[in-house]
Amino acid sequence: MINYVYQLVNPQFFSIKFENVDLKSKVLVRPRFMSICQADQRYYLGNREINKLNEKLPMALIHECCGEVVFDKTGTYKPGQNVVMVPNTLSNGEPLKDYMLENYVEGSYFLSSGYDGFMREFVDISPDRLVPFENIPLQTAAITEFFSVACQAVSRFDKFAHSTRETITIWGDGSLAYVLACVLREKFPKSQLVVIGKNERKLSRFSFVNQTYLNYELPDNFKTDHAFECVGGESCYDAIDHIITHIRPQGVVMLLGVSENKIAIDTRLMLEKGLTMIGCSRSGKADFEEAVNLMKTQKVIRRLSSIIYEDSPVHNIDDIHRVFATDLNTPFKTVFEWKL
Amino acid sequence: MIFGAILAGGSGTRMHISSLPKQFLPIGEKPIIIHTLEKMLVCHRFDAIFIGVHSSWLSLMNDLLEKHEINTDKVRVVSGGDNRNDTIFNIITEIEKEFGASDEHIIVTHDAVRPFITLRILEQNIDAALKNGACDTVIPATDTIVVSDNGKVITDIPNRTFMYQGQTPQSFKINLLKELFERLSEDEKQTLTDACKICVLNNYPVALVNGDLSNIKITTVNDYTIAQVIAGAEPFGGISGD
């Protein structure tokens, strides 16, 4: 079968690549709903270094997507089964050491970062890269990958952080901060959950946390046991500095925000407090399963649904441009039905 | 019920490169008709897919299904007719033999030599046929259309805004198509070049479905070369893939 792959060849310029799909060893999935990640938006707008763009393009964008199994000769899934697709793909190397998480394995690759993402007519994918789900609205299931990143961050935090978790604070008021707050609320219901942001309107959406602060109104005597940084970009310098100032000694700082440039850190104070910083990026299949598991709760589905803006379906390439334009004007996640 | 009909009655005379009809020529490792069939098979709304093949090639077609491990019970290979509409009506006869006649039956007819068909186009055809009774797949004309009655001088240059190029699928409610065909005179039946004209001659409105520039028909050697290039395939060689 000849498959259509909608590749970004240059910023804001798509072209179709045709490829043969081998139905023998993989599962054929029809993408149903997709969600735009900031990384997709950066590629689309060309907001990456030119050598990075040259290295990664052309490629199909989108790594947050749910779909429906169309065909599976491996016999793992039945046609019609709803699935989320794991974009992290392991290379066929040595078996993983028990402490290794699949998304940090050297040589593994990520669909929509140098390899075609899910903007295709059909996706041929190994059965072990699929996580089935039921009773989750497709619009919400579309952001499972995004939610799973928060699941992995919280799981690693739980493993490494000392046992005092009276106050856990998130710096950032965007989509990642929001889904992270959802996971923390479920996993640590007794902790004081605090969110610090710069946009009052966005902060007002965090209705299920204990306290929110605008960053310039944070009391000087504010203290937190642990912190999550979800700011990214140039602003993460201020956020990390703020965290080091307000975190209690021996706290854990989870870094999740992506910055294009290197960020200076107050190592003197960090050393004095004996802090641990842990970088977190992406997720693996186990985190997808945890995400789907959490989404069995209506409360979680309702919270996640409240940050989703559903744009009109995509029927053609002009519609792809439209959803990326829409995403620039939506405060949280833009989701759309894929009809191409 | 919804039926797919792959029209492969042609004998390949326009290709002049092989005695093998064009639908059996390879793009990458698979014949064109297998690419087309595989795309129709992933549209779950089809209850069965009929392939109308010239009687000389029935056995080859069955061998190809086996070779490419298409062993679903959804596919039927039947003998095509002398022309396009004969093939369609042969397929309709076979459908009714097996499934009976019904006002609910829809047939989605598609050229075997259009392997770049998409699921979107197939689904929009089914929806449009269910809603309107008949539909055609078209793309807006990009070239100016020039009419000449005698082949020597221009008679007319119609407004391009209203011009479209016809592709396939063309889809119909089966009973409607049969009824409209019966209403035509023998002369009119002789002038038919495609199935939608059966509706147009009866003033029955045919809905338009947006096709795709890539949904090309592989008719000439040049088309075949273009198809291989856009599919990333070396002539008679591999095809791009993951």
Task: Give a quick set of tags describing it.
heterodimer; A: 340 residues; alpha/beta; Quinone Oxidoreductase, Chain A, domain 1; Rossmann fold; 2 domains; 7-stranded mixed beta sheet; 6-stranded parallel beta sheet; 11 helices; B: 242 residues; Spore Coat Polysaccharide Biosynthesis Protein SpsA, Chain A; two-stranded antiparallel ribbon; 8 helices; 9 strands; 34% helix; 20% strand; disordered C terminus
Report the mean per-residue pLDDT of chain B as an integer.
Answer: 90
Q: What fraction of residues of chain A sit in β-strands?
A: 25-35%
Return the CATH class of chain B. Answer: Alpha Beta
Which fold name fills CATH's third level, the topology of the largest domain in chain A? Answer: Quinone Oxidoreductase, Chain A, domain 1
State the largest interface. Answer: A-B, 26 and 26 residues
What's the total count of β strands of chain A?
Answer: 18
Main sheet properties of chain A: 7 strands, mixed
> SSE order of chain B in H/E notation?
EEEHEHEHEHEEHHHEH
The count of β-strands of chain B is: 9
Beta-strand content bin of chain B: 15-25%
The best one-word shape of chain A is globular
Per DSSP, the total helix count of chain B is: 8
Oligomeric state of this protein: heterodimer
CATH architecture of the largest domain in chain A: Alpha-Beta Complex
Q: What is the architecture of chain B at the second tier of CATH? A: Alpha-Beta Complex
Reading off the top of the CATH hierarchy, the class of the largest domain in chain A is best stated as: Alpha Beta
Question: What is the chain-wise order of helices and strands of chain A?
Answer: EEEHHEEEEEEEHHEHEHEEHEHEHHEHE
